[in-house]
Design brief:
Layout lengths: L10 E5 L28 H14 L3 E5 L9 H9 L6 E6 L4 H11 L3 E5 L5 H8 L4 H14 L5 E6 L8 H10 L3 E6 L24 E4 L4 E3 L8 E2 L5 H11 L12 H4 L2
Parallel strand pairs: 1-2, 1-7, 2-3, 3-4, 4-5, 5-6
Antiparallel strand pairs: 7-8, 8-9
Helix pairs in contact: 1-2, 2-3, 3-5
Amino acid sequence: MLDRFNRKITYLRISVTDRCNLRCTYCMPEEGITLINRSDILSFVQIAEAVRTGSELGIRKIRITGGEPLVRKDLPELITMIRRIKKIKEIGMTTNGTLLDKYAGTLKQAGLDRVNISMDTIDPEKYKKITRMGNLESVFRGIKAALDAGLTPVKINFVRIPEVNEEDEEQVRLFCKANGLKIRAIRQMNLATGEFYPVEGGMGGVCKICNRLRLTADGYLKPCLYSDLGVPIREMDMKKAFLTVIGQKPKEGETSTSHQFYNIGG
């Protein structure tokens, strides 16, 4: 499945919810957000149908995101449904890690391959300040549970927040090295202004090799994080939706006001 610029599209990122149990300063406004009506959120059956259709067109890699995906009830059921789709080769998940100690083993059994865990400091007080409510010890427990369950390689997403955690990056890197983790350093980005950068230690943010599409929790298939384009998969034949979005995929990111990081998963 090639787009107009001869990029092979093999990767679908799926936001399963816009809910989150944290309120990170760089992700959510302090006053909170207007949540999607639960009736508008895709069911697991609808998500699995989208994955199955995408797999017939060349999708091979899935990443589950949120919000915080583990606040979605019975998420391992969805992982099982996706794992049964034979052409899907990899299922990953991005999480804040605070609930992983409860679910890591079940997720692995369901067919999840690996996780990325957001952690922007190893200072408990600073973590609480950045997340507005988080307990860093729960993240440490989640990391251990992920390693014990074999959700590897476990990658740590470190967002560089100017004048907040710049001095923390080295300590996080040392923590990762000591615990067999990989680190991805991410500069703060801005959807509305089109400000984005390559991810250090990852493939994100490099438009010329971008191989991904995105599915929002309320059912919009989108060609790019930095684009307002997208089609509602519940209002169009599923195969046609994929082909339409592939045809819309821009050469490079522009700007977006149709979604935010907290409801499309970054």
